[in-house]
Design brief:
The protein is an alpha+beta fold. 19% of the residues lie in helices and 28% in strands. An 8-stranded parallel β-barrel has the order 1-2-3-4-5-6-7-8, surrounded by 5 helices. Helix 9 packs parallel to helix 10. The two termini are 44 Å apart.
């Protein structure tokens, strides 16, 4: 089945789509972003659907607030947009675990994206909830949804045609009476592995449109051609550079696609934000690269929804070939710099621990029934039964190492930070100082952060936390207490901290009018921030981004509570600054 443009739009106009991920944008701003899509000359909106966002715990589904997919689709339809839905179950999207729920990893034998019975059972359970949420909005039922994707870029992962056919048939069985399609990178291996002969095929690329469409036509000679992901920008990794792209170049590639009747989905039209713990990561040759909180993507709309030069340039191209865009008034949201705020209250993490789980060896985050956030591993370590003087004379050193670390560990001895271990340096050790004279043991605390599960490639299914062992020298340590710290909410009480990290810093910002703003974290090293109990996401001194975006709907007139969880210690006064311009690179 291939698209009939006259049936979809009433005339021979190609699909002119822009990607907006509803779960990365505050719901109060959905209409603004969709109206800007229309005003730019696009006729369709596309979105992925993240399984883990909607089923955070197995069997517990949520479609409210940021997760109101039906509401997003209905709004798009009311505004006159057509809709493309990409339900996965794998979506990539630089999203945590490519959309897969972390609880899948409770099964150590789990195999993803293939005909593995236990995996298919979970997918069927999920789709049995999701697809009926979408079917009332299908074009066949008078709604705006005319197409849904089967899997996502499967050819870059595998070639299990039986699996793809299973998903296609499952979607049909559950009521997906619409155009089904696949999308893959424009090369022979990816196209060959990721498609089925009875489905429409699309290609994903960021440049060289003629070359990309040329490969597509080898598989689909009669078209129509569509770039399902025109990568107009790119995403950023912690410790890397901030990606930008010349607006004229974006517009030129767009023109190359549409001038001869090609269809396009601008990825991204509006990127949004990886709030909370929802960022994903890449991993190439063992080099782990977590994605930053901002998903600005250097898209046509900025992270805060502002019009960019690429927006203006692409609008000119679309109007050149398809006539004037709808005359919809659009404007950037007001921004405000609320100034500096001191965070005078300090609550120590070690006062926020609940009841531990005890086990001989460290348990992974998933084994503890947790998917995101942190886990504190605690062990009382006994010293060798010899005198301290002999240990000093013998040059004895306690070298701490961790195997199976996912992803980053802050190590503390006696409540004081010793150092950091990171999965990119698996052979790295920390030297534990000898206890004071008379001490025969010490408390070892290891705070492990899941910094974002890998969302692309074959290094997908691995447990977070510690899945191996903690060693001093060659000896593995046994007898652990483990404290789950999902940090879905900030703490409300606790004594004043005497150490610098890990610590919750609290303060208040008093505002008159709620406007978009940006939280400058230049005095802090690494952690997360909450405003009025909402997790804004991660910050990290390695950059490239220094600010966290705060949409105005998260603020209120009067006092607003800010909580910052700092794991590594300050590099300046305990204060933040609310500014009116982001620092992205």
């Amino acid at each position: 089945m291939t698209p009939n443009f006259k049936k979809i739009y009433g005339k021979d106009v190609p699909i002119l789509s822009g990607a907006i991920h509803y779960y990365r944008v505050h719901p109060n701003y959905w209409q603004d972003r969709l109206e800007k899509l229309l005003a730019c000359g696009f006729n369709t909106v596309e979105t992925y659907v993240p399984w883990n966002f909607h089923e955070p715990k197995e069997g517990q589904f949520q479609f409210e607030g940021f997760g109101d997919l039906p509401g997003f689709i209905e709004l798009a339809g009311k505004l006159g947009l057509k809709v493309i839905v990409r339900p996965g179950p794998y979506i990539c999207a630089e999203w945590e675990y490519g959309g897969f729920p972390g609880w899948l990893n409770k099964d150590r034998n789990m195999r993803l994206r293939c005909m593995w019975p236990s995996y298919l059972e979970k997918v069927r359970n999920w789709f049995s909830v999701l697809i009926p949420k979408v079917t009332p909005y299908l074009e066949s039922n008078g709604g705006p949804v005319f197409a849904m994707q089967v899997e996502n870029e499967y050819g870059s992962y595998g070639s299990d045609k039986e699996y793809l056919a299973y998903l296609r048939d499952l979607m049909r069985e559950l009521g997906a009476d619409c155009l089904l399609f696949t999308s893959d990178g424009p090369n022979i291996e990816m196209m060959g592995g990721g498609t089925l002969p009875d489905m429409w095929m699309t290609a994903n690329f960021g440049s060289r449109a003629a070359e990309g469409f040329g490969v597509l036509r080898q598989f689909q000679p009669n078209g129509p051609d569509m770039c399902c992901e025109f990568w107009c920008g790119w995403f950023d990794h912690w410790g890397g550079k901030h990606h930008t792209r010349d607006a004229a170049d974006v517009a030129k590639v767009l023109e190359d696609m549409v001038k001869d009747g090609g269809s396009v989905n601008m990825y991204m039209f509006h990127g949004g934000t990886n709030f909370g713990f929802w960022n994903g990561a890449n991993c190439h040759d063992g080099n782990y690269q977590p994605t930053i909180t901002s998903y600005d993507y250097h898209a046509l709309l900025s992270e805060a929804g502002d019009i960019t030069p690429a927006y203006t340039a692409c609008k000119a191209v679309l109007e050149k070939y398809f006539g004037p865009a709808p005359a919809i008034p659009v404007a950037n949201s007001p921004k405000k710099a609320y100034g500096k705020v001191a965070l005078n209250k300090r609550l120590p993490l070690l006062d926020q621990l609940g009841q531990p789980v005890k086990a001989a060896s460290p348990l992974s985050m998933e084994e503890l029934g947790q998917e995101y956030g942190y886990v504190l591993y605690r062990k009382t370590v006994d010293m060798p039964l010899v005198s301290r003087e002999y240990l000093v004379q013998a040059g004895y050193e306690m070298k701490l190492s961790i195997t199976g670390l996912r992803d980053r560990a802050v190590v503390m001895v006696g409540g004081e930070k010793l150092g950091v271990l990171y999965r990119n340096n698996p052979k790295e050790t920390l030297t534990i100082p000898l206890p004071a004279p008379g001490k025969t043991s010490f408390q070892l605390d290891i705070l492990v952060e899941n910094m974002g599960r890998v969302n692309y490639g074959h290094d997908l299914a691995y447990p977070c936390g510690i899945s191996g062992s903690v060693r001093i020298g060659t000896n593995a340590l046994y007898g652990w207490e483990m404290y789950s710290l999902p940090l879905d909410k900030p703490p409300t009480s606790g004594g004043d901290a005497t150490c610098d990290a890990p610590v919750f810093y609290k303060g208040e910002v008093d505002i008159d009018t709620a406007c978009d703003t940006f939280l400058d974290m230049k005095n802090f090293r690494k952690g997360i921030a909450f405003i009025n109990g909402f997790n804004l996401g991660r910050y990290w001194e390695v950059g490239p981004t220094r600010t966290l975006y705060i949409p105005a709907p998260l603020l209120k007139p009067g006092k607003n509570e800010l909580v910052v969880f700092e794991t590594d210690g300050l590099q300046g006064p305990a204060e933040v600054e609310f500014i009116d311009t982001p620092v992205l690179g």
